[in-house]
Design a protein that fits this description.
Number of strands: 0
Low-confidence stretches: none
Distance between the termini: 6 Å
Number of domains: 1
């Protein structure tokens, strides 16, 4: 995720990090060469009446911009919902950690409380890896006891299985008389919230924007861009390639941004910084457990994963 502060208006014109321009350059270069070819043969195009009335592109461009705006809105809604879910994950894990320390009786129960905190931390890391489809073994082995790590190593839905163990921990505290039924119900409310968060993240991750819709918009954008030179070659001549590339950059970049934001849990520059958020949650839970924490140093890079 790009975290750099905005520069002045002039510096923003040449900003490279966080822009989709690097991945678009090859396509824009092809379009520029194509436009140059159209300009070179402009006399033949005019003679055979292959040029197009520019008014058509004006009307069609407005409609295309509206569709692209809708596509970007849908993608950003997914991005923002993902961010809200991870914000709720931070709040609910803090609440559970606080409850474990303030509502569970017994000064001799510190080891079990720490076990509970470790399970919460493991759930956060397991969810991160599940959403990114990466291997969670390194993080789980670091934060869990060997017995717990062996239990979860072969499970498919690790966050849910860890959530189950959190529920077992609460039930054990009730059976041993550490908490009463009202406190158990209070724990269960926050555990249910964690279940809702996991389900919400899985819903976003496993339900992309309908593919046929993306294909339609993608084809329309590129057909529009490659037809543009036929509409402006007669009036702008050699300026045509530069104008066409600028117009194409606007439309193609909007589509690329929408594609990038569609899956907020990925590792692209503008996706959510799940690694950093997981480390922050781990640090705050450790502090609640009265453990020494390693402060996460500010990144010197623009890109936070």
């Amino acid at each position: 995720m790009i975290t750099k502060k905005k520069t002045n208006w002039f510096g923003m014109l040449f900003e490279w990090n966080g822009s989709v321009l690097p991945q678009l350059l090859p396509r824009l270069f092809i379009l520029f060469c194509y436009s140059m070819l159209i300009v070179y043969f402009r006399e033949d195009l005019v003679a055979y009446k292959l040029h197009i009335n520019p008014a058509i592109f004006t009307l069609f461009g407005i409609a295309l911009a509206i569709f692209l705006g809708f596509r970007n809105t849908v993608s950003y809604d997914r991005f923002w919902e993902g961010r809200k879910l991870w914000g709720s994950l931070l709040n609910d894990t803090r609440s559970l950690a606080r409850q474990a320390h303030t509502l569970v009786e017994g000064n001799d129960y510190d080891k079990e409380r720490t076990h509970f905190i470790h399970l919460l931390t493991a759930l956060v890391h397991a969810l991160k890896h599940q959403l990114r489809q990466t291997n969670a073994d390194v993080d789980l082995k670091r934060v869990l006891l060997n017995s717990d790590y062996g239990k979860f190593k072969t499970t498919v839905f690790k966050p849910i299985m860890i959530l189950k163990d959190l529920g077992v921990w609460v039930n054990k505290a009730k059976i041993t008389g550490r908490i009463d039924s009202i406190t158990q119900a209070s724990f269960d409310v926050n555990l249910n919230k964690l279940s809702d968060i996991i389900g919400g993240c899985e819903r976003i991750s496993s339900t992309p924007i309908p593919y046929t819709y993306s294909i339609l918009l993608h084809r329309t954008v590129y057909i529009y861009c490659f037809l543009l030179p036929f509409g402006f070659v007669e009036s702008m001549v050699w300026i045509t390639p530069f104008v066409i590339v600028f117009i194409a950059y606007t439309f193609v970049a909007l589509e690329a941004i929408a594609d990038e934001l569609e899956d907020p849990f990925g590792i692209q520059p503008n996706d959510l910084a799940l690694e950093t958020m997981s480390e922050m949650i781990e640090s705050t839970l450790a502090e609640i457990d009265n453990k020494k924490i390693d402060v996460i140093p500010p990144s010197k890079s623009y890109y936070i994963i």
